[in-house]
Design brief:
heterodimer, A: mainly alpha, B: alpha/beta, Rossmann fold, 2 domains, seven-stranded parallel β-sheet, 15 strands, about 15% strand, elongated, glycosyltransferase (chain B)
Chain lengths: ~170, ~400
């Protein structure tokens, strides 16, 4: 049996460590939440810009687009009001329609590449957040408060390299 | 944009990451951006007078066959804080942030858009799998991750649990494409040359395979010569040659950057017989930029740079007789060489800094859209006495942060 004094010290130190850890984890969660929000704003902006540029191409150069123009116009319309709220599906359809466009448009290509960047950075932020929120101590103490678990945004932007996509994303 | 670049390795020691940071800074400045660099160096005097800030000295640590550096502590942290505060950057771009270096310090202290580039590549790394979770809380602050190759990306994905966009290393294509040839050598002369560049006493660079192949080449192509450039022990090389190769091999020793370009412009064929361990193969891009037809071992990284053989010839690694056949064919056909050189030049353009820097800028704009705040040095209290030591967001207790050593 250790004397009660030293037991108190041990408990006190453990409590202090726990508090420090909680404070640090709360900071991390707040930071990650900010990162996800900012990354989503950028991704949203990139998707809207791509749709706007596609709409402009449909309006201004119908002759160049030929039959692909009608499909493109429909795809743009879908991204504005995704059926069933399925924005991923709508953006995917637009991406496919853009790949079928016969003429090269540097602005549209740039917009597509930026959608790819923004999507990757957004999903990266989501992955980091989910990894931390999966930790048992974080779940038990509900350190994330009322914040919902962020969702991945999965579209095929043609940017995926040969290497498989990251560690398991379930959870 | 105001951009802060952070190089974790000593500026006055030659190395790929250092050159990358230097060239990226120059290219971005050429595009009208304001760029500041923070880097350790052996001596502060070795740094350029402007736009480069000394972060102290880093301690070299041998790691994975090359040198990593270790730099941590309160003095370094204060230098980082001061640099961040004075820089008022829109985005900070750190390189190789996982090891305990000035890059990691920046990740710990900076608040705002951070971009990181991962250069190292390996299939697995014991150090990173143990260390990754420790530094995870700070690497989480990085909003945009770049890997210079698929291998660097894989290392990042497997050990640090994140994803990265692949943007390759840049090359100043113009600096290799145009200029004089190495004195005494001329492409297309009657005595055709094969070039090798690299540490020739490292077995994984594969020089013994090339020497073996050259024994056949000198028999079948009279006058053919091998030029070896790079560091190593000359006596060891001469012992490898033997009397039949001795007259056909010239050892050039270590070349300056300018001489390296002149060397690549002079050779008739550039050969990279590496057996393993190349993460990127930037020298292949440099050779292609210099107009040299490239013959390389079929490492994944090389196959990628050479577009699976469209921009150069791939040979099974370690296969000296196949290599000999390819070299004999190439040295015997000027048309085939010209064809390969043209394909190589087209491929090299993809790696030109002008192209690569635009891609990196797109990353900056993605993580730091116009109107987003600047990078700050942690949670500085504006009411703080400006002359006093700054309160950074740090896990170190105050007494530790004020210690004597950097």
């Amino acid at each position: 049996m250790s004397p009660p004094g030293s037991t108190l010290v041990v408990v006190g130190v453990a409590l202090l460590l726990l508090l420090a850890w909680v404070a640090f984890t709360l900071t991390r969660l707040r930071r990650l939440d900010g990162r996800v929000t900012r990354a989503w704003d950028v991704l949203d902006g990139a998707l809207v810009r791509r749709a706007d540029l596609a709409a402009a191409a449909v309006r201004e150069r119908p002759a160049d687009l030929g039959p692909a123009g009608a499909a493109l116009a429909a795809a743009v319309e879908q991204t504005r009001r995704p059926p069933g709220g399925d924005r991923e599906g709508a953006e995917n359809a637009l991406g496919r329609a853009l790949r079928d466009v016969p003429v090269a448009d540097p602005d549209l290509e740039d917009a597509g590449w930026r959608v790819g960047l923004a999507r990757r950075f957004y999903n990266d932020a989501v992955r980091d957040t989910r990894a931390l929120r999966r930790r048992p101590a974080v779940r038990v103490l509900r350190l994330h408060g009322r914040r919902p678990v962020p969702r991945f945004f999965d579209i095929d932007d043609g940017l995926d390299a040969v290497v498989g996509a990251g560690p398991t994303t379930a959870g | 944009m105001r951009i802060g670049l952070v190089c974790p390795y000593q500026w006055d020691v030659p190395g790929g990451v250092q050159y990358h940071v230097r060239d990226l800074a120059e290219t971005l400045r050429g595009l009208g951006h304001e760029v500041e660099v923070l880097t350790p160096a052996e001596h502060e005097d070795n740094l350029p007078a402007e736009h480069v800030t000394w972060a102290g000295r880093a301690n070299p640590v041998p790691y994975n066959g090359s040198m990593a550096s270790w730099q941590f502590g309160p003095v370094s942290a204060n230098r980082v804080r001061r640099w961040l505060r004075e820089g008022r950057f829109d985005v900070v771009h750190v390189h190789e942030p996982a090891p305990p270096s000035v890059s990691l310090l920046v990740c710990m202290l900076a608040d705002g858009p951070i971009v990181a580039t991962y250069h190292a590549a390996a299939v697995r790394s014991l150090f990173l799998s143990a260390w990754g979770p420790v530094v995870r809380p700070w690497l989480e602050k990085i909003s945009g991750r770049i890997a210079v190759s698929d291998f660097a990306r894989r290392l990042q994905v497997e050990h640090l649990g994140g994803d990265a966009v692949v943007i390759p290393n840049g090359v100043h294509v113009g600096a290799f494409a145009e200029g004089p040839e190495l004195a005494g050598y001329r492409r297309g002369s009657a005595t055709p040359t094969v070039g090798f560049l690299g540490r020739y006493d490292e077995p994984r660079k594969g020089l013994p395979v090339l020497l073996e192949a050259m024994r056949t080449v000198v028999r079948e192509v009279p006058g053919a010569r091998l030029l070896v450039a790079g560091r190593g022990d000359p006596d060891e090389l001469h012992a490898l040659l033997g009397p039949d190769l001795e007259p056909s091999v010239t050892l050039l020793g270590e070349l300056t950057e300018a001489d390296k370009a002149a060397f690549l412009r002079a050779v008739d064929v550039y050969c990279a017989p590496n057996l393993m361990g190349e993460s990127f193969g930037i020298v292949l891009v440099e050779a292609m930029a210099a107009g040299a037809p490239v013959v390389a071992a079929d490492l994944d990284a090389f196959a990628r740079v050479l577009e699976d053989g469209a921009a150069g010839v791939l040979v099974r690694r370690g296969d000296a007789s196949a290599l000999a056949r390819v070299l004999v064919d190439l040295l015997g056909s000027a048309d085939r060489r010209a064809e390969l050189a043209a394909a190589g030049s087209r491929r090299a353009a993809d790696y030109d800094w002008a192209t690569v820097a635009q891609q990196i800028l797109a990353v900056y704009e993605t993580v730091a859209p116009a109107g987003a705040g600047q990078v700050t040095a942690g949670e500085d209290d504006p009411d703080d006495d400006p002359a006093g030591p700054a309160r950074g967001e740090s896990f170190l207790p105050r007494w530790l942060r004020r210690g004597p050593a950097g």
